[in-house]
Amino acid sequence: MPQPPYIRTKPLIPGPVTRRTILKAGGTLLLSVFPVLPAAAAQILAVRVWPAADYTRVTLENDSDLKVTHFTVPDPQRLVVDIEGLELNPTLKSLVAKIQSGDPYIKQVRVGQNRPNVVRLVFDLKEEIKPQVFTLEPVGTYKHRLIFDLYPVKAVDPIAAMIEKGEWSRADAPVGSPELPAPAPRPPVAAAQATPPASAPVTAPAVTPPSVVVTPPAPVPAPILVPPAGPVLAQPTVPVAPALPVPKTDLPEPAPVRPDPPRVAAQKGDKGGKVVRMMTIALDPGHGGEDPGAIGSAGTREKDIVLAIAKRLKFKLEEQPNMRVMLTRDGDYFVPLGVRVEKARKVQADLFVSIHADAFMLPTARGSSVFVLSEKGATSTAARWLANKENLADAIGGVNIQSHDKQIASVLLDLSTTAQINDSMKLGKAVLGEISGIARLHKGSVEQAGFAVLKAPDIPSILIETAFISNPEEEAKLRDNGYQDQIAAAITKGIKRYFAANPPLAKGRQT
User: Fold this and answer.
1) pLDDT tens, 325-371?
2) Of 363, 420, 461, 490, which residue is least crowded by CB atoms under 10 Å?
3) For residues 331 and 425, what is the distance between their CA atoms, to the nearest angstrom?
4) How far, CA to CA in Å, does 394 sit from each of 61, 258, 333?
5) In this structure, which long-range contacts are made by residues 268-275, counting pairs with CB atoms below 8 Å and at least 24 apart in sequence?
6) Cα 100 from Cα 102, distance rounded (Å)
7) Cβ distance 117 to 41 under 8 Å?
8) If we measure between CA atoms, which residue out of 285, 283, 282, 290 comes closest to residue 392?
9) Is 303:287 a contact under the CB 8 Å cutoff?
10) In the Cβ-directed half-sphere of 212, how many Cα atoms lie within 13 Å?
11) With contact defined as beta carbons under 8 Å apart, do 39 and 55 qualify?
12) Strands 118-125 and 106-115
């Protein structure tokens, strides 16, 4: 009986069988047996809302990059945002409670799981907006950030905003200022005709009268009829009207005199009859919003301190004749460096003063400093280090690179002039000289470095480091109302000294 033919087969695994080959085969088997697990959903770590007249920012900080789509819906105005790869958690739900009633653009927000792995946010709006939605890579202490910037369709006019906020009411006066006496009450008409006591002030201290005042004839007061309330008040000889029987036809009734506006002092001329023009000063409180600036050992944030000092300084400057002030930010929100400069240029500022509080690696560093721009490099290693740190504000605060105005960037980089730096040095020396009278100086001369915020080509610009917030002693001083007021007063004196030596009418001269 014939034997079956011998069939030789090829080995399943070519080549020698090794331990690595067996492990690979085992791994393939395991993958085929167990199902692939879905990717873990991203987690929202923090939510923050920064409302302001310029724009409102909503920040979602998370542990990974998120894919997002958005669209607007009219009647009523809404912004709808869908975020993929996200599950609803308590942190995200807390966004609802963070919307303030005074937010200029957001009425309320609704948060819900639209479908599996997709969360939907619906912002109910107070008016039509231009949204910017973008993401930021991790920087500093921040993880990934998803940003919603809600801008008005018609941008806020900085000149109109400056005029609207130009006068502080007494309720807005900085806390702790010793120079704000309560205004004297206005006397009634009948009392004004009586002989004032010797100690009564002749003019109100808060308003400077114009240089020429024409006083029209005072109108005859109408008789004031007071019903008798007792034997003391029942005196028929007291009313003034019967003692002045002037026929109504003999004296025409004068036109009512309107009180002068509070800024009459700013419009008066000098002794030679020349009209002194209004001087505009741009004050720039550094950092803000997502960018806290330096933080002291006691938790003091630079952005809060410099805003408080800037408000005090604004109040003191606007007490001077012919001065008005524009704040690049008047609340806790982020303003990009280029926008700060652009705001100053839009109001045609005569000066730009940026206010900061130093921080250094060593807590022993101390003293105030004044900086101006340098085209040739920093005057010291510390100045260069500080400029590099301050120039990171856009990265930390969060700038939408896609919509960043390239024209603003080119202005900051290319148009700085030698004349601007020379004028800035004069301003810096005047201010530093006044600060030296109330605080220790870190260095006795004005320093120079490449600060981006000082690169306005046509505005003398300085950056003041009021003290080292990283020094515990100076951090305590920065928190003190009295010290804040002293710094504001010193800067005011320095600015007045600069204008006295460099009148704004001669601004264009080359000296």
Assistant:
1) 999 999 999 999 989 999 999 999 999 999 999 888 888 899 999 99
2) 363
3) 29
4) 17, 48, 12
5) 268/208, 268/210, 268/211, 268/321, 269/211
6) 5
7) yes
8) 290
9) yes
10) 4
11) no
12) antiparallel
Which residues have CB under 8 Å from 164's CB, separation 6+? Answer: none
Q: 468: closest CA among 394, 358, 353?
A: 358
Query: CA-CA distance, 309 to 115, in Å (whole number)?
Result: 49
How many C-beta atoms surround the C-beta of residue 71 within 10 A? 10
Query: What is the number of residues in the chain?
Result: 511
Tokens 């002045």, located at residue? 244
Q: What is the pLDDT of residues 13-38, one digit of tens each?
A: 555 666 666 666 666 655 555 554 45
Distances (CA, A) of 247 to 19, 222, 251, 253: 125, 13, 7, 11
Cβ–Cβ under 8 Å, residues 474 and 464: no
Residue 377 buriedness (CB in 10 A; 0-12 / 13-18 / 19+): exposed
> Which residue from 126, 123, 176, 119 is spatially nearest to 152, judged by alpha carbons?
126
Cα 491–chain centre separation: 19
Q: How confident is the model at residue 431 (pLDDT cuts 50, 70, 90)?
A: very high
Tokens describing residue 33 = 């047996």
Which tokens sit at 221? 């007061």
Stated pTM of the model: 0.70
- The alpha carbons of the chain give a radius of gyration, in whole angstroms, of 34
Given phi > 0 = left and psi -120 to 50 = alpha, else beta, which region is 107?
alpha
* Number of alpha helices (DSSP H) and beta strands (DSSP E) in the chain: 14, 14
